[in-house]
User: Fold these one by one.
Assistant:
Number 1:
Amino acid sequence: MEKIFALYDSDIFYATRFLEYFQRKNEYDIEITAFTRMESLEEFLRLHPIEILLESDQITRKDFNSQNIKYIYQLTDKLCKDTDTGYPLVYKYQSAKEIMEEIMADYLKKENKTRINYESTNQMQIISVFSPLPSIQKMSFAWSISSLLSEQNKVLFVMLDLFPIPLFNPLDHTSQSITEFIYYLKENSNITVKMESLLGRNGNLSYLAGILNGADILSLSKEDMRKWTQELRRHNDYQTVVFYLGCYTEAMAELMNISDTVLVTIMDNPYEIAVQKEWERQMNQLGIPIKQEIFQTIGLQGEEELGHIPLTIQELMNSDSWTEARRYLNYS
């Protein structure tokens, strides 16, 4: 049964606009419904469980049976959120997208805490998706792997590409999050909180993307990568972290060296195969052997020319890259 997200606000105009946003773009696996009268909400609750209720704190709520509601959030028209209402407060006059990102981040955090903890042998896994020659198909494959894994676990996707493009609608490249994070990484030791503040979210998938200049990624050192991954493993906030590597540098080679799995994506043509062999030679020269149990080659097929960019999630799910990602993960 699909989870239900309910909005309760007496402001008909506000409720209608919020509902229209979801009718145009619903990035979450939930059904949206809105109520402007308490009686209607009470009647609905008698028959349907509500996963998340977002209610206005301007309405005096009658006593009603809230046992059929899993989580309650309250809208507030005040930027200050220090009022003790017993429920998380969400600032009302921000965009519907920002409201949902704030609620879903808190919701997923709560849900993750209720899941059975992994055994100590199941530590956070780092997957690097490396492209000797970057392409749309390879970037799509990296996102597809991350998205599919996030259906069951909490996943972080990091886009390390010199020339990132807005390939997917959910992936925001307009920010300069990676640039800001790299500067912070080089100057500070406690980097986790800063990174979390820069993340975008798409359901259970968090992502770090957006640069000012590709040179920012080239400035990363081996030491930066060790520090970053050590902090990720120490805090263990994610079951899986997927790095997309759209370039080959000493720092990227170090990241592959400390990854649990490296997926080397290539297209099936003589030139790319020759480039892969040269990359393997250079890795061996750095003292990083291509271990079969860690490094895996993923052959991707060329897709039809895209009619537009960015792609929608549905278009991505119909692509060969998505199919290959499902095949790699042994999804039916």
Number 2:
Amino acid sequence: MLDKEETVEKKKIGIGAMTVITIVTILIVVLGIVAVLRIIGKNNLTTSIVDAAETIDIGKADETLKDNQILYNGKVYELNEELITILVMGIDKETVTTVGGQSWTEEEAGEYAGGQADALFLMIINPRDKNVYVIAINRNSMVDVDVWDENGNYKGVFTKQVALQHGYGDGKEESCKRQVKTVSRMFHNIPIHSYAAVSMDAIPELNDALGGITVEVLDDIIYPEYDMNLHQGDIVTLYGEKAYWYVRLRNENVFNSNELRLQRQKQYLTTFAAEAKNQATSDIRVAINLYNTVSKYMVTDIDLSSFTYLATEALGYNFDINNLYSLQGEVIQGNNFEEFYVDDNALQELIVKLFYEPAGE
């Protein structure tokens, strides 16, 4: 029986989220306290991290609408308040010294010392249609970023890559909360309920815990210095560091290289999730091993009761490549690095599609 201190200890979630959910389900059933933790966990997860004073700014204003309604393209829509949204971040501190595709000293890159959110995924759990949706966010998206100097003094809001926001913090809870606020603001103040940040260093261990991940290579990845010689169309099983480099490397000499990498990250994420769920269902030792591995690399605000709710509520939900979305926009070459400008009309349409339902239905 777990003691009180262990019961309230925060757990960590990230790329192996569905597998972690499987483990927590089994543990809680053994303890026999599912019902109580479900109630507490749901309450925790449905509380937005972002300041409640922020209001969603989509559609036209109409005094006749309720607080959770919007007027969009002549129709009234209602926010699905049962949704649970989780911002999942892949944190890569190595990119601190290569900001903008050029070499930086640690002193020059000091303001990003918390590490960049090199991969950003907004996960949406919908209890009404029993689906999990994921929006892949281009790390080069140019958005309003809150900036602090090396001494912790707030400098103001500047237009920067969304990935840089995590660096303006302690690399832990502070950085995560600031990243959540920025992404929520980017999504017109849509509520985000929790966060999970995983170091990219976890990928080799997680990958090999499943015996490798097999993919069809989406674009040429030829880097002799990293022992990478993969060509588009190859069917390969990734092991160890090769899995890490598959989701991290991008050819900075190719325009819009980050979009190519983002497609690989989406591919790897869905393949990994499917394989983890399949193996854990037949052998609980696989799940335990994955959980022990991922917990060393994670920072999250999702506690045991929230895990329990996710486990018992969302384990059987559908999640596949059709539930993965990318933001539309335009890539231009900035002074030092590529800049991605989100198509705001397309973004609003996606928000309405995933977060809203026609009023009265």
